[in-house]
Amino acid sequence: MRKSFTAFVLWMTLVVSPSYADQLTDLIAGDTESQTTPGADKVIDVNSSAQDDKKIQRRLQKIFSEMDNLENIKILTSSGIVTLQGEVNSAPAEKKAIQLSQQVEGVVEVESELVITHDLKERLETTWQKLAKAAKALITGFPVFLLAIIAFTLTVIFGRWLSHRQSLYRRIAPNYFIASLLGQITRLLFILLGLVIALSLLDLTALLGSILGAAGIIGLAVGFAVRDTVENYIASILLSLRNPFEVNDLVNIDGNEGNVVRLTTRATILLSPDGNHIRIPNSIVFKAVIINYTRNAERRFQFDAGIDADQDLQIAQSLALQTLGSIEGVLAEPKPMVIIEELGNSSIVLRIYAWTDQDKFDFLKVRSETIRQIKLAFDQANIVMPEPIYQIKIGNETGIDLKQKDNADQERVYPAHKQPRIITHATIDISTDNTIEKKVVEEHEHGDTENLLGKNASQE
């Protein structure tokens, strides 16, 4: 109840006396300039007389008669103290009357007994005068305003036309993305130029600093909000300047393997061997370790082969090298290599290295055929590739009769209807599989998505 009464009293105070509202506004806004009056530093003359008071009164009446809304003020002067009486239509008019009175020579103090009138007719007249004055100023300044709009529009149109002249920017930067970026910067510069010309015509150049300051603050706030997007955009610029890969290159980026489809302003798109699209943000691509399997046509593969510890290692290595030399797709230069990788408990591990030309043969197919041929050569030369040996101990209480190991060495007998069939070996196709490459080409032919990868850009 007490809070409601306090709010009601405050509302009545603001409505009945707008001057109090202005004082409250000045208090909230921190406006203390009105507290320092022009006559505060004046020295009071000891020789003041009635003639001086009349001079002050006549001077103020003459001044007020020339001022709007002040001509009806009554002025009383005694010993340099000026008393203002009458009605004014606003608090600023009262403040102006007091300020003018304080500036007159010989005035010691100004006491205001002015009353702010709420006469509807007078308020409407004052408002109408203000609107008429504003309309007149608008009509007077309309040609200049129209000229500023035309100048701004023509400058922006010319900047847009110039930004679309990509052939000009391609001479400066061969990279398509950088050329497009230069065009956008040119367009932005012409927009700013048009704004400066328009504000200069309107005599509002001081407003340009405020606009740029506000734009800087807004840009800083937006920059923090879209930091990841800006980082990806900058990374796309750097990646397009020096392409670490091209379209259809087989790459491994941060553990993701696939053929490169495109590089956009936000992400790098890969097509995995399974036919799935992989989208990697450019900020990650720029900082990641990139393995490009396509940049060099010659690529090395490796695999391990285990042989029994009792076998002659030199014979096994020579046989493996001889077999590698007879396999189609395995290059003679660089030379293949067979090394002893590991000495195990029951086997020796041989590691076999060989090279193939990816432009002529399929990498995975050549590796698969090499493993098959090495296995076949070892079998024909009776080079045993041992199986793992496990020792199982079973207690006597189980009642299980363990047979001798000789039974395990006996030849397995198959029923007549389950006899294994010998299949004639067919020719192994080791030609390049271009399935994924064809899918990438089809996407570029039927899609209009941007691609920042260019053949003219420098390559890392």
From TrEMBL:
One MF term in the entry's GO annotations: mechanosensitive monoatomic ion channel activity
Bilayer-spanning residue ranges: 142-163, 175-198, 204-226
Its GO CC terms?
A: plasma membrane
The organism's superkingdom is given as: Bacteria
What is the membrane topology here?
Multi-pass membrane protein
| Coiled coil stretches, renumbered | none
Specify the BON domain's residue ranges: 52-118
Gene3D superfamilies with a match to the protein in the record? 1.10.287.1260, 2.30.30.60, 3.30.1340.30, 3.30.70.100
Note the InterPro entries from the entry.
BON_dom (IPR007055), LSM_dom_sf (IPR010920), MS_channel_C (IPR049278), MscS_archaea/bacteria_type (IPR045275), MscS_beta-dom_sf (IPR023408), MscS_channel_2nd (IPR006685), MscS_channel_C_sf (IPR011066), MscS_channel_TM-2 (IPR011014)
PROSITE patterns to which the protein is assigned, alphabetical: BON
Q: What is its main location?
A: membrane
Give its localization.
Answer: Cell inner membrane; Cell membrane
Q: Which UniProt keywords apply?
A: Cell inner membrane, Cell membrane, Ion channel, Ion transport, Membrane, Signal, Transmembrane, Transmembrane helix, Transport
**Signal sequence annotation:** 1-21
Cited PANTHER family: SMALL-CONDUCTANCE MECHANOSENSITIVE CHANNEL
Assembly and partners are described as: Homoheptamer.
| Family indicated by similarity | Belongs to the MscS (TC 1.A.23) family.
Its biological purpose is as follows: Mechanosensitive channel that participates in the regulation of osmotic pressure changes within the cell, opening in response to stretch forces in the membrane lipid bilayer, without the need for other proteins. Contributes to normal resistance to hypoosmotic shock. Forms an ion channel of 1.0 nanosiemens conductance with a slight preference for anions.
Q: What is this protein called?
A: Small-conductance mechanosensitive channel
